[in-house]
Amino acid sequence: MSALKQIYLLYQYDIYFTKSSAVLFGAFSSLKLATEAVHINFDKKEGVDCELYSNGDNQWKSDKFEFGVAIVEVELIGGGTR
Fold first, then answer.
1. By three-state DSSP, how is residue 20 classified?
2. 9 has pLDDT over 90
3. pTM reported for the whole predicted model
4. Within 1-82, where are the H helices?
5. Rounded-to-integer distance, Cα 68 and Cα 53, Å
């Protein structure tokens, strides 16, 4: 098994990205997997296009449904295992 040096946490927020609105959606072993999860789970809501757009590095917003999503990289101390 290879040691993980970081994980990527996917959070959903209100439209203003307030810390109190953060809900952890998932943890991923790579930025690619986390980014794919954003598009699989947040591009559409109940079959309707959410009109996600980039809001900076690893952040997306939907004005239409008033939410944001962000990926946060977390460095693991001592490395982790899969």
1. helix
2. yes
3. 0.84
4. 31-42
5. 10
Taking a C-beta distance cutoff of 8 angstroms, is the pair 28, 10 a contact? yes
- Is residue 4's pLDDT more than 60? yes
Provide the CA 66 distance to its chain's centre, in angstroms: 16
pLDDT digits (tens, 9 = 90+) for 18-63: 999 999 999 999 999 999 999 999 988 888 899 999 998 999 999 9
For the chain, the domains span: 3-81
Residue 72 CB: number of other CB atoms within 10 A? 15
Give the dihedral sign, CA 66/51/42/48.
positive
Cα radius of gyration rounded to whole Å, the chain: 14
Contact between 50 and 44 under an 8 Å Cβ cutoff? The reply is: yes
C-alpha separations of 2 from 5, 29, 82 in Å: 9, 11, 7
